Amino acid sequence: LLSLFVCVYTKLSCDLRAVVVSVCVLYTNMSMRLHYHVPHHQTTKGNRSKRFSKPCHTLTDSYTMLSSARASVATVTRAVTATFTLRLVPIRTKATRAEGKKQGHGYYRTGVDAVHRVYNEPPTYLKSPKTVAIIGAPMAYGQPRDGVHLGPGALRDAGLERACTKLDWRVVDVGDVALPQPDNHDTYTGRGRCVLPRTVSEGNRLIYERAVEHARKQNFVLTLGGDHSVGLGSVAAALDAHKDVGVLWVDAHADLNTPETSESGNMHGMPLGLLTKLHKTKIPGLDWLSKIPRLPFKNLVYVGLRDVDKGERDFIQKHQIKAYTMSHVDKYGIGEVMARALDALKGKPLHLSYDIDACDPVIAPSTGTAVRGGLSYREAHYIAEAAAETNNLVSMDLVEVNPTLKGSEGIGRKLGEETVELGLLLAASALGNRII
Question: Which of 54, 246, 354, 395 could form a disulfide with 348 if both were Cys (CB 3.0 to 4.6 A apart)?
């Protein structure tokens, strides 16, 4: 009872609780064995009532008691040792979240608490006072996994609007785009493979219309995916609203396929192939894209690539697209890679397309196409910070956060919470969050 009271009603540290509980267990065990032990051979039907009332007196019983006591001490010692070892594992509760994520070894700031209230000048191509338009694009039909459509809601619930206001942005949350649902007539008959072309194409037209409306108002457009096929609509809006826009594509994958080169036919691997007009066949529902300026190859730069299809590799080499893979990050460091990437887009309005799978699965496990060997936590943030520091960033899409997928998350973490939290903070870094 004392140990239960200590655990539930006191505010002692994890270490002190372990000591008190261990002492209580040891005392109870020893007391039971020393004062209330009756050997099994003396317990008969007639004297069972004496089992907890007769102390032991014989030498044999004393030896048995001593051996049992030593075993009890050893067991409790191991429990205490394990407790002190496990105390270093972060355990999150509602109380610890409320007081800054208190851990067994101290405090750390995450989520909105890690966003610093700072003031940054409005980006060059945006109006003042600076305003961010948040657009939910819950697209899930560009890839086969369910759950990615919950990404926009999860990011909002994590405190996205509050993070924006802490960074001195006015917020216009226009809600989620009502996307069409697939039917049995949504098929592709052209060359190659393309899954649900009409559903994805029509959905991106709606995303484009919502995004370009706010881009023309000189608002920062933040599009929340959804799978990366939504980049087709968000980048199209940037191309339409801003002259000579540059695209920084942060992703483990090149997303440069076309129906002719794609092995899976999933359209989340095609947005750049379609925006650069590499496709040769007609795709149902994509007529609206013909009115959008083509994305020039020189205005596209990749960072973080590590899983590229053969057709994509051929396109990159043929059109001399600047592509910085994880090998370049290993060789030169993220600072030099970003300096080169941004130099190639110098003087242009920037659109940052950030796929969460660019990050290593260790820090972003809840995504549908995770690939080992990705960006570290600080490398991931530095990319967003460096893009923002150009003061030319006009729009961003944050995609492929799937809160229903569970990775190797820590004890006490909710399903997908770690990846959602990372996505929130990457958006904050792109909007001006800084260490100092």
Answer: 246
| 355 in active site | yes
Q: Spell out the residues 6+ positions from residue 24 whose beta carbon is closer than 8 angstroms to its own.
A: 2, 3, 6
Asked if 269 and 259 touch (Cβ cutoff 8 Å), the reply is no
- pLDDT per residue as tens digits for the range 226-235: 999 999 999 9
Q: Catalytic residue among 149, 228, 328, 351, which?
A: 228
Respond yes or no: is residue 330 known to be catalytic. no
114: nearest Cα among 433, 380, 436: 433
- Is 253 a residue of the active site? yes
Report which DSSP code applies to 392. -
Does residue 15 carry a catalytic annotation? Answer: no
At 380, which helix (H) or strand (E)?
helix 377-389
> Which one from 255, 312, 360, 397 is the annotated catalytic residue?
255
Tell me, yes or no, if the pTM score tops 0.85: no
Q: Cα separations (Å) of 310 from 252, 258, 262?
A: 15, 12, 9
- The rounded distance, in Å, linking the Cα atoms of 391 and 148 is 31
